[in-house]
């Protein structure tokens, strides 16, 4: 009613000093360490001497030439993509299986959310026990086939990363399922009814109506799965500790290991690499997924 | 195409509507749902419970056989006795509670201003403040900074690190929510002579309850289960439940004690599990709200 008169007091009614405490905490505990990353990655900071000297790009060249930089980058990327794939496939599958609101479905949904609230470290240890060569999974397979099965699930230089990504997806699929269920609920029943009357079968309806309309849920799930797995540590540390032969050594595993050895500058360098990787990847991925939503 | 599509609609609309529905009601669906749950969840969970109930000799190779003698409570007692479980439990609370309260209060204060003020400055601050949702924390240099501040290895340092990490999440959630609160509610209080602090405490904060509940759940989940950042900041100084689990499980002495590790896992999961069972409806609706808009 009083647009001009109301606009001026509004600034005073929402004083900027309310922002100060949050900004102080953010600057001190988030932005300053991030800026430090760009400084200390170029030093020789370590636990072996007290002085910290400028070292140029020595850390990058040594990590690059001994192959760990590219290996950790590759492992992290492969892991992130695999987790995003599995977590979304499992989550969507569960959502479609448990879509109707029956009592059984509701109970099963709650059960699938239990891994989400468990500690990732604990999940890692459970699967370490389950996947040992003489563990429970091989026991089940042995009972089914009648032969003695001793597959080293966590000891294969090619396939272990896939196994670990599946464990990661197992932990988080309940969350993806819930997001997909919420997405399925938002789809207008009339649209589906119309398609049904036009003789669309269930697969056609899923492919050309329901899945495209799930785009916002896909965006959220893919983005969180990618971010979560690029920052992954607990599950891999608890199952393989980066092995066998460094084939599951995520950037965070490397950072933790070298930090423990006192090679702080190298750990910082990898932390900076992770920061850049996430910055370079996450924003375009999110923008691309958002654009897909707009087309609809 | 058009013939098949129009003829049932005019001839027998009710039948056409009912027929595909009945086909959709696949009678084996509950069986499939339970079967999937048993295979995918039941096997690992049974492994945990069965192993946690065995004695050391039986648990040496964790398998799916039922324990010959159920000793779950004895193993719980052993874990409580040997391990530093109680101190770890209080250590977890010591860092989680202040961090959660801190991010909620500071985050809501900031979000109220960012949600209400227009202009380029607020937009820039908002973009910067929520960037932490995506960007990974600089975990190594945080340790350096904490040393310089004299906070290395202290609960205060850990609380600060968690607050720095999760303020972005709170600001993001709450700012979106603040924008849906009608201005008139604030105006009414202002007309009565309330200043900004009073308006915030008496009008805004109570309205934020649902979104703050969601944020609380999410952040408790992250902090309660975090081991990575805790290893860097307070590892070896303060025990938290996941840190303790990590030390116990990676120590050579305990490597052969799967029954104790799994008993520990059950005990440390219980607080969140009980909270979840009690408040599952709210938790689920809180987490899914906003994700699919």
UniProtKB/TrEMBL annotation, chain A:
Parts of the chain that traverse the membrane: 16-40, 77-98, 110-131, 151-170, 211-230, 263-286
Task: Determine if Transmembrane helix is one of this entry's keywords.
Answer: yes
Q: What is the designated name of this protein?
A: Multiple sugar transport system permease protein/raffinose/stachyose/melibiose transport system permease protein
Record bears the keyword Cell membrane? yes
Q: Which organism is it from?
A: Glycomyces harbinensis
Recite the UniProt keywords alphabetically. Cell membrane, Membrane, Sugar transport, Transmembrane, Transmembrane helix, Transport
Q: Which residues form the ABC transmembrane type-1 domain?
A: 73-285
In the bilayer, the protein is annotated as: Multi-pass membrane protein
**Gene3D superfamilies according to UniProt:** MetI-like
InterPro entries xref list: ABC_transporter_permease, MetI-like, MetI-like_sf
One BP term from GO? transmembrane transport
- Tell me the protein family, please: Belongs to the binding-protein-dependent transport system permease family.
GO cellular component, alphabetical, reads: plasma membrane
Q: Where in the cell is it found?
A: Cell membrane
What domain of life is recorded for the organism?
A: Bacteria
TrEMBL record, chain B:
UniProt entry keywords in alphabetical sequence = Cell membrane, Membrane, Transmembrane, Transmembrane helix, Transport
One GO term (biological process): transmembrane transport
- Is tRNA processing one of the keywords? no
- Transmembrane domains' residue ranges: 31-52, 88-113, 125-146, 152-178, 199-224, 258-279
Localization (cell): Cell membrane
Q: Which GO terms describe its cellular component?
A: plasma membrane
What is the protein's name according to its record?
Answer: Raffinose/stachyose/melibiose transport system permease protein
* Species, as recorded: Glycomyces harbinensis
